Amino acid sequence: MLGAHSGPLPGDGRIGFGPFSLHLGERRLSRDGRDIPLTSGEFALLQALARHPRRPLGRDRLIELSRGRDHEASDRSIDVQVMRLRRAIEDDPAQPRYIRTVWGLGYVFMPDGRAEDQP
Q: What is the rounded CA–CA span in Å between residue 36 and residue 3?
């Protein structure tokens, strides 16, 4: 599965996870062929997480990866965007499969969403 890919992206610029496709060049997310609306910040955060699968990322690192080194953002803004992303992609946002919390650190993206893949 492409979602498990780290490093250079596949030739089609797409990261797949579960029923979703993150189309990097087109800056869009789809599920089973239907687009899911995301803000530019939500897309950038999901892209940052998806490019580093199974690697816990702290909030500061996520801000840097999604918004750039010089961007002034708060840890809380990352938490709010994660909450919005979970509403968009998780069957049960209270029990996330793809974007999980790593207590005391930040978040980790699990492309196959299996419980046994706990970081």
A: 17
